[in-house]
Amino acid sequence: xxxxxxxxxxxxxxxxxxxxxxxxxxxxNKSIKIMNVCGGHxxxxxxxxIRNALHPQIELIPGPGCPVCICPEEDIYQAIQLALHxxxxxxxxxxxxxxxxxxxxxxxxxxxxxxxxxxxIRPIASPLEARQIAxxxxxxxxxxxxxxxxxxxxPTAGLIAEGIPDNLLFLLSGRLTWPAVAMLLESGLPGxxxxxxxxxxxxxxxxxxxxxxxxxxHLPTAVAGFTTESLLAAFYSVIRQxxxxxxxxxxxxxxxxxxEGNLSAQKQLTKTMDIVxxxxxxxxxxxxxxxxxxxxxxxxxARITFPDYAKKxxxxxxxxxxxxxxxxxxxGKKYPNQCKLYGTVCTPKEPIGPCMVSDEGACRIWWxxxxxxxx
Length: 375
Prior knowledge:
This protein has helices at residues 7-19, 21-27, 39-48, 50-53, 67-70, 73-85, 111-116, 127-136, 150-162, 178-186, 199-205, 211-215, 228-244, 263-272, 302-305, 326-330, 362-368; strands at 32-38, 58-65, 88-93, 121-124, 141-148, 168-174, 194-198, 221-224, 249-252, 273-280, 284-293.
């Protein structure tokens, strides 16, 4: 368990550790690259100005923790077409309404555009709202476009397990976080020296889910919450592990995270969903990284009930928009300001790629918090 220190004390500890003679001898003027998987972590880092306050040899790399950014383009296209052409109410988490698909600019490119054209599309903040909308509209089919990682997919699973109205269907686009990190590590060129794992995912799935990073790939790893103190404690832990060559999985978010996680939530996920190979936008198929409704719930599966508007014939254009480096940003291969579209034609007001849309997208976070210079 980590020490209970304030943010200033943790920052001092981290920077003193990096400036020590032993650290400088081991690092030999090289940086230590720490990937923070979660978009929420990146937002906290940027809001608090942590990146600029750290020792210059500490490099913080945003990782693949933005569900809006990696949601397959063809799933968004399917949701748009369902809303336009079927007599339904479509509900989705708010960020999804602004993500553009790869069609001509004068065409309907987002769920927000489709809504402006008359489709009944409603933003929601909780799966419970989807159920209530279905109950309030018993003569209409309600389709919940459910994109997200374990943190939002678990409540969806709980909703299904408890029982749902006959007229509530799901266009499920849920993903697991750890397989993307595993893919990076197995590539042989992960681009980072240590990992800070997402505390909210670990709250559901357990800290032990990240043990493979230490045991199989021999990288320092810590689970962090979203306060400055928790993040700095995690940075200190992984740097200390690196310098001491003593690797372990450190839980720097013990207030909510346990080794095993929320067993009830995991049970509901297992009861309602299967784990399948899944497409990540701009990245491709990652094995065992997606959630799919079990066949016993097929009457609630919008992919079965409705025609496939996102047919294979158009999937060759289902990557990132031309010139957009969002996939490279998600994988930690580029910083947001290294994309040639960043801050020029792509801004939060008029986003080109999904990384500039979501509050968890690194491009939007960097731009919003004043990182305007091109690299």
